[in-house]
Structures are given as C-alpha cells and as structure tokens.
C-alpha cells in the first residue's frame, strides 16, 4: 500500500491541478470567449475521438495490462511485446479508419439536419468543417493511451497523468486566451489543441526511451502462439472498454442526436464537467490500483485484492461526498462562474449527474477486479448490458424531459452497472466493500449538506464561498475523524496535529 499511497498522492495533486485548469477553461474562459455551439462541438469532438481510439485499438490497452506481466524479462525485450503492440495498433487503426471514411456522408448528414426537417441544425457548419480533424486526433489519442499503458505496467504513471490532466489543459487555456485577444480564430484553436496532443506523445516517447524499461525486438514464438488468445481477449475487452466509454459519453451523443442542438450540448457539458470533480479521488487511486490488482491476480493474492477493494471504496466515497456537498451548497458561486443566463434553469441537472459519479466511485475497483480475473468476459456482458439500458433510458427520457433525461439516464446506468459488479464479486470471490462505515459517511454527509444549505451568510458570493466551504469542510472532516471513518485519514490528521503542537 506504500506505492498506492505515494503515487495516489502525486496523482491526486496532478488531478486537482488539472481539474482547476479544466474548471477555469470551461466555466470561466469558454463561457466568456466561445459560443455555446463552439463549446458543444469541442465536447463532441473529444467524445467521438475517444470512442474512435477505443474501437480502433481493439482492446490493446487491456491486453497490455493483463499479459505483459507474464512476458516480462530482465533484458527489457519482453519477448517482443512492444513490437507486437505496434503491429496490432497500425493494422487495427487503418481498418477502422477505412470503415469510418466509408460512412462519412451518412454521419455528417445525420447530425447536420434538424429532426424532421431539411433545415440545417444549429452548429452544423462546425461538424461539417472539422470532420477530418477526428481522424488524426483519434490516432494521437490511441498512441498516447498505449504509451501510458506501457508506463503504468512498470509503475510509472505520474508523467502521463500530468500530461493528460495539466499539460494539455494549459495548451487549451493559452489558445482560448489568444482567441479572446483576437490573435487567432476557432480554427487555430483546434489546430493548437492537435499540436498539444503531438507534444504529449513526443514527451512520453522520450520518457519511456530514457527509462529503458522496454526495447524493440522481434516478436517471440511464445507471443505468436498466444495470438488467438490475444484476439479473443482483445475483442471481449473492446466491447467492455468501448461500452464503458459509451456510458460516460452516451448522454452527449444522444442529446445531440435527439435535439441536433450543439447549444444544448454545450450547457449540459458544463454541468457534467463540474460534476466530474467528484470522480477525482477514484482517478487518483485507480491508476495505481489497476496494476497492483493485475499483479495480485498473477500472484493469486485474493486478500490483497479485498483490502484494496475496501479501502478504495471508503476513501473514494468519503472524499467524493465532500466534493459533491461543497458544489451543491455553493450553487450561487457556480452560477456566477458560468456567466451565461441559459444555465440558471438547469442546476438540478448537475445534482443528478453528480449522484451518478458518486455512485460510480463508491463501487471502488469492482470493475478492475472482474476484468483482470479469469471471468473477464462478464465485464463485457455487464457493460454491454448497461449500455443497452443507457440507450433505452436516454431514448425514453430525453424527448420528455430534455437535459434532465440525459442526466437521469446516466445516474440510473451507473447504479445498475455497479450493482451488477458488486453482486458478481461477492458471489464469485467472497469480496464486498460495504458496511457500517458507508452508512456513517451518508449520515455525516446529510448533516454537512443541511448545514451548508441553511447557513445564513451574507450576499457577497465570494465571501460566502469561503465561509460556507470552510464551515461545511470543518464539520464533515471533524465528524469523519471522530467516527474513525478511515484509518488513513485519521493518521494524516494526527500527523498534522502533532506537527502543529511542535510548532
């Protein structure tokens, strides 16, 4: 757990710094410099390229995590595993890109017309103009993810986290400020964003080369003999990983598909991005937990997996709940940041999406446990089933209640998926993370939330933010400490108190 704590700590700092930058970009700069249509297109561009990269790689990231530990060698050639990864990615990306280009006309036409009309949909010009940006951006996304996966297998995940969460967002921040200064236009902004992705890959390549953990070599007979197993596992995990990405993005895709309005998508995106803050504890812990669980399965160390399962669930729920409460009680400040009046009627959308994120992170590492075990196929069954459920929920709810329908569909889907994982892990492995500790977290969350909502503070939104956040934070952390919710948290607070007493 020392490695988990250390890398989790650094990743937490990076993730929170990245979130701060993302928050500044989306809720302050984007709202004041870009149109809602431009914000909506930027969102759907990233959504599509992420899915594109997932499908085109045919599960290679999961193959790296599961099989590289079995081929690891002291000469760093690992039986030519890296060469195999390169060949796999090139072939799969070319095949998928040809299919994507074949359906170009149908895709553009579908998203460019209003429902039941030949009239151009709002923002359709952007979709047509920048369609070909999707291909290079998807390729760069795939390459970076593969390099990141290789680095994670040797427990080096901090730099890739920094590049993804901070470095790229700095590129975005600078370029949007240049638009605000009338030095560049939206076209240049997208080109700079593409250049940022190229720079990330160059840095990762140099980092991996200097680390000397991998060497190119001919593909060994042992790896060749496993090709059928790789293909089978790759396709199964392609379904699960793509479906997992779809769960995170189906609301965006279907909201645009049903409304054909990038402006509505732009509003929904802003609330979704703010709610994403809640998932940061999970992101920080899971990057390291993933490889530890993979190694624990290789060592058949079930107690270690159970310990990580419990600790991640408790810690993620504890921190995530505090963040969720803090965002709800500071609604006036969020409305000031978002700037545009269109947002004021939709804050409830944020609350429902936030509950979805909180539900998901409270499940801990349940999906990783199943996906890295011999029962990995069930991950595919569960996630594909959840995607079908999500599609049905969106089709039923969005036409009736609009944005709130997309939010409700996301929350219901995360609940169903985590429930399935919880049942499966409990039955197959006898592991489950929930107990009285989670009930106590709910109790202190309700107390802190009610206190924060009814604090009779002043009318200055900035002073109100500081006072309300401080009071809610002190109440929440004090109750968590007194009730001994987490040994790690109590040890941290005790250490701070001891140092304070010495001063």
Question: What does it look like?
Answer:
The structure is a single chain. By secondary structure, this protein is mostly helical. It has one domain (2-434). Helix content is 81%, strand content 0%. The chain is built from 22 helices and no strands. The protein has helices spanning 2-33, 36-56, 60-71, 81-102, 104-112, 124-129, 134-153, 158-180, 186-211, 221-225, 227-259, 262-275, 280-298, 302-329, 331-338, 347-362, 366-371, 376-401, 403-429, 436-453, 461-482, 487-502.
Mean pLDDT score, rounded? 83
The count of domains is 1
Derived from helix and strand composition plus strand pairing, the structural class reads: mainly alpha
Q: Give a short account of the largest sheet.
A: none
Give the overall shape: globular
Rg, nearest Å:
23 Å
Uncertain stretches: none
Quick structural summary:
The chain has 503 residues and is mainly α. It contains 22 helices and no strands. 46% of the residues are buried.
């Amino acid at each position: 757990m020392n490695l988990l704590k250390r890398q989790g700590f650094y990743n937490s700092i990076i993730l929170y710094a990245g979130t701060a930058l993302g928050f500044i970009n989306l809720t302050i700069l984007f709202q004041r410099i870009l149109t809602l249509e431009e914000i909506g297109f930027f969102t759907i561009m990233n959504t599509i390229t992420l899915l594109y990269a997932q499908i085109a790689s045919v599960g290679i990231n999961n193959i790296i995590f599961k099989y590289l530990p079995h081929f690891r060698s002291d000469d760093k050639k690992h039986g030519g595993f890296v060469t195999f990864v390169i060949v796999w990615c090139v072939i799969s990306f070319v095949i998928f890109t040809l299919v994507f280009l074949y359906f170009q006309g149908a895709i553009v036409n579908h998203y460019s017309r209003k429902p039941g009309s030949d009239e151009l949909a709002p923002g359709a010009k952007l979709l047509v103009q920048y369609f070909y940006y999707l291909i290079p951006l998807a390729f760069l996304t795939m390459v970076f993810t593969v390099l990141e996966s290789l680095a994670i297998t040797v427990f080096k995940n901090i730099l890739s986290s920094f590049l993804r969460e901070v470095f790229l967002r700095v590129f975005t921040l600078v370029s949007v400020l240049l638009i605000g200064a009338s030095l560049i236009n939206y076209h240049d902004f997208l080109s700079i964003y593409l250049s940022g992705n190229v720079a990330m890959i160059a840095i990762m390549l140099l980092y991996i080369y200097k680390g000397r953990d991998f060497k190119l070599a001919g593909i060994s007979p042992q790896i060749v003999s496993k090709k059928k197993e790789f293909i089978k596992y790759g396709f199964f995990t392609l379904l699960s990983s793509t479906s997992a990405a779809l769960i995170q993005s189906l609301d965006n895709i279907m909201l645009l598909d049903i409304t054909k309005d990038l402006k509505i998508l732009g509003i929904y995106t802003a609330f979704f991005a703010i709610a994403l803050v809640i998932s940061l504890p999970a992101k920080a812990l899971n990057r390291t937990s993933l490889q530890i669980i993979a190694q624990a399965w290789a060592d058949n160390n079930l107690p270690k997996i159970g310990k990580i399962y419990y600790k991640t669930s408790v810690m993620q729920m504890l921190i995530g709940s505090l963040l969720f409460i803090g965002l709800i009680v500071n609604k006036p400040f969020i409305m000031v940041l978002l700037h545009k009046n269109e947002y004021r009627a939709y804050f409830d959308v944020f609350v429902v999406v936030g509950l979805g994120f909180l539900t998901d992170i409270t499940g801990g590492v349940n999906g990783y446990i199943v996906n890295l075990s011999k029962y990995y196929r069930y991950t595919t069954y569960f996630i594909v089933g959840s995607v079908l459920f999500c599609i049905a929920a969106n089709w039923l709810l969005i036409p009736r209640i609009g944005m709130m329908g997309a939010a409700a569909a996301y929350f219901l889907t995360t609940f169903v998926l985590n429930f399935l994982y919880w049942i499966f892990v409990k039955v197959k492995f006898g592991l489950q993370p929930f107990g009285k500790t989670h009930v106590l977290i709910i109790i202190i969350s309700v107390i802190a939330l009610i206190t924060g909502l009814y604090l009779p503070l002043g009318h200055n939104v900035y002073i109100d933010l500081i006072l309300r956040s401080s009071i809610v934070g002190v109440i929440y952390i004090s109750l968590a400490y007194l009730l001994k919710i987490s040994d790690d948290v109590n040890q941290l607070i005790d250490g701070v108190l001891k140092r304070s007493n010495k001063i």
